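Notes, Module 5: Reading structure tokens.

Key idea: the token line is not a picture. It is a compressed description, and you learn to read it the same way you learned to read a sequence, by spotting repeated patterns. We will look at two proteins. The first is printed below with its tokens.
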Amino acid sequence: MEKEVNCINCRAIFDYVKELNDGDCSCLLGNLDPEIDVLPDPEIFLRDPNNWISCTVLSKLLERAKLILHDEMAAYKITKYAVETTSLGYTQRIIVKAFWSIKKGLKNLQKVNDKWNRNKKVELAEIKRNEAIVRLYWNSHMDVTKDFCLLNQGAYTFMPIIWGGRPLTLKEECCCFEGAPYCEYHLKWSTGNRLHEIFSRFFTSKSVLSETIREMEGDKRIIEKKYEEVNQLNKELNQRIKQLLAIQETGKAILSVLDLDQLLSVIMNILSNVCQINRAIIMLVNEGDRCLEYIHGAGFDGEVPEEVKDYRVPLNRLSNILARVTNTGRSEYVPEVEGSGLRKDNIILAYGQPVSVYVVPLITRSRVIGVIATDAVHGKGVPKETRETLEIFSPQIAIAIENARLYKKLQEQMQELGFPSRLINRLSFGW
């Protein structure tokens, strides 16, 4: 999305439509721009004067405002309403008030214009004691419409109110949107405005300072909150990068380990360091007995109890979460064991007393060969980051385990066929 106009224009549209449409401005939103439509709250983005949007988006908002209010002059009235009622941001207010008079403001039209949009060039063709001629040359490469002209007419007419002056008289002599090369405004103001300007000049600095301090305090709190959010996101991002790098390196390591017992120890170390898992067990499918059986565990106080080591789950017992994950091939997370349908007298649950459980299938070659089950013993449960990382890592673990099992089976077959021990041992070194 191009950055062509400041969102302070959008804020004025939202406020005006809400004022005249019983507080409802929902019809303004939707199908504005892909970048805006996907935001959690597009209105907040469009109200922020620190944001910029394309002329196309502003054109859509102005067109919708006209349709909602049944008023072809809505753009003009929106600017009038904004000048009379909307509190400008302190930066914009300083810029406007710094020029403190009509003549001084007109002589700096391009500077003022550039603070809010980049869609035109402004020329002060003539200026006298109480009248001036202004020409607007619109950028033909941008999606500007007659509504933009009306917005500017409203701005030039009512902007002196900010200085404590009276509205100007504006007459459009020719219009770019009716075939002319530019929009030409003839402006006139009464000499009585001069008194308001002088008065405003003496009191502007103090009023601007007071308003600036108040708004800067509010912005300071917003910035502090945003900083905390960004800082937290950076921490999470750095942690995720470390996890992904660790997964890459440890993935290489476990795929090079062929001894099953040694591999399972390596896997558990990885789960502890990379996935931040405190306690876990690995259970593999016994094809002959059609059940899951314990093969390795870590994180238990002392030795893994014999009851856990002897734990077996028939694959047809779908009420059991371990068997169910093996059959479906889909991970399952139980955030609160206490209020779940899990059997509390289950050996593992009874021994471990977890508050939450997460089970991930080990899949290789489109076949589930087992599961990894981890848990948490505090109220926060198994962290989302841990679950996501384990989900990514589990296929590598499955491949490594399958390779180690095939290697062990090959060793056994070579022994049965009478191969020399030295030849079998050389197999583990990649022979």
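Here is the second protein, with the sequence above and the tokens below, as before.
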Amino acid sequence: MHRAPIPTSQPFSFDQTLTFIRRFPPCQGEYLVEGDAVTAAVTLGERAAPVTIRRIGAAVAVETPRAVDLPAAAGVAAHWIGAADDVAGLYRAAEGDAPFERLIGVLHGLHHVRFLSLAEISVYCVMMQRTPIARAAAMKRAFLAAFGTPVEVAGRTLRAMPSLAVLAQLDGAEIGDAIRHAAKGRSIAGVVRGVAAIGERTLREAPYSEARDALLAIPGVGPFSAGAILLRGLGRMEEVPSIRMFARDAAAVYGAAFSEAAVARRYAGQLGYWSYYVKAGVGRLAG
């Protein structure tokens, strides 16, 4: 096994990362999570390989069987766990926001755990539209069973999401048959092709509004799906489609003190991280 360190901005807690992964329904059953490590099947170029992130003392490292895959695997792993994210900046912005500081106390050191690839979130953003999360997660598992690339890890078969280029060749009817939802099958095929046509570099590097508008021009992509692609897939934290869509969870954190305007002012440029902590933490607070 070949290994390379993953630099992380501080504070960083791998325990928080693993807890989030264990609790996140859309990916349950897709990773191998052990005491101090998590392994996923990942498409690196046009080849699928296992990628493991493991705690090594107080640090974390990426592991993969082939040395030639290590540079690409390191990039995927660092992106996956939000290794370079400026969580300290979020915590500074939260000073004086007592309800959110309480949330930070529960989630301290949690970085943003993304979907593994733009291809994965492009597929899942359609599945989750107006669909209960358990049903959307089941569709994702069925999709991977039909189209994912199998990778054997410790006697277990994990499946890697193919690249956007490969997914763009799939027929919508074929997808619909696999996930047992014809309309979503057609929409997934169109969305994947639309995202592939824009290109990952543009979606990562263009001004947020330009990237969002390019996604919104794809039939089947609305504000919520565009926001999910940019935030949950690419880790773009500048904005969210609407603070109001998080109002129910925010009310559980802030109570009657919740104010969209106050949140927008305090967390300008970090609204994605604010929303991530609210969604990840509200259940933990209740627990």
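Summary for the second protein:
- The chain has a mean pLDDT of 96.
- The chain is about 50% helix and 15% strand.
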